[in-house]
Design a protein that fits this description.
With 271 residues, the chain is mostly helical. It has ten helices and four strands, in the order H-H-H-H-E-E-H-H-H-E-E-H-H-H. The chain has a four-stranded antiparallel sheet. The longest helix has 21 residues. The chain is globular.
Length: 271
Amino acid sequence: MKNTMWLVVVLVIGGIAAGFYFWQLKKDETPPPVAESTLPAAPPEPQIKHPIREAPASDEPLPLLEDSDGALLGALTGFFGQKAVQEFFEVKELARRFVVTVDNLPRQKVPLRYRLFKPVAGKFLVTGVGDDFLSKPENHRRYNAYVLLTGAVDIKKLVAVYTRFYPLFQEEYVNLGYPQGYFNDRLVVAIDDMLAAPDISGSIKLIRPKVLYLFADPALEELSAGQKIMIRMGVENAVRVKARLREFRKELIYKAPKTEETTTEPTTNKN
């Protein structure tokens, strides 16, 4: 069991030119009024439930999205150190990997091509043969280093860095195909989904229809990618990670002044 963003822009230049030519020929003719009911509906306003707080002013401008790897890598290194970053993170297209990972954690799978973390080291251990497998509790140790990483982070500083780079994440989220989406809302959905993961202690029954092991219980196998990660790391690790997620969520969410843009709640779901 291994762990585990594009819009096409169309410019109708020919149509614009033809319309201008027709207007030149018919400029003395007054067109009939267009009934209000026939006008195209205006696009919906973004529905924001958890607005990002405004980042403090900075003398250093944000890089362009396509040139942001260096700045984001520097931020990661500042939190975890160069050795840990190289060991645990995929360090190219960081903004895209972060946004794709967050967007897909509440779904059943995170695309391997854009995963943010490298695969968990070590072999997945099981007992049994045929269709009768059990996971070994020793597998939980494979996640210990990741749990230690989460415990070492200063949550306030992490949110400050996230807030500073947020325009890049929002731009990438739009590029994913969510022109009216708000990435911070999706992040909160992902956090809440992982916090809702069931606590399952002891060995878990598995099946192996092909190469990978799957949960034998269909209800477990149908859980989101984020919840499966929490289960695989074991209850003790999951409790520690959930505590940090709650701290992060609490620091991330704040009471923004009520405006027309922030009073409508979005409709969010796992899919």
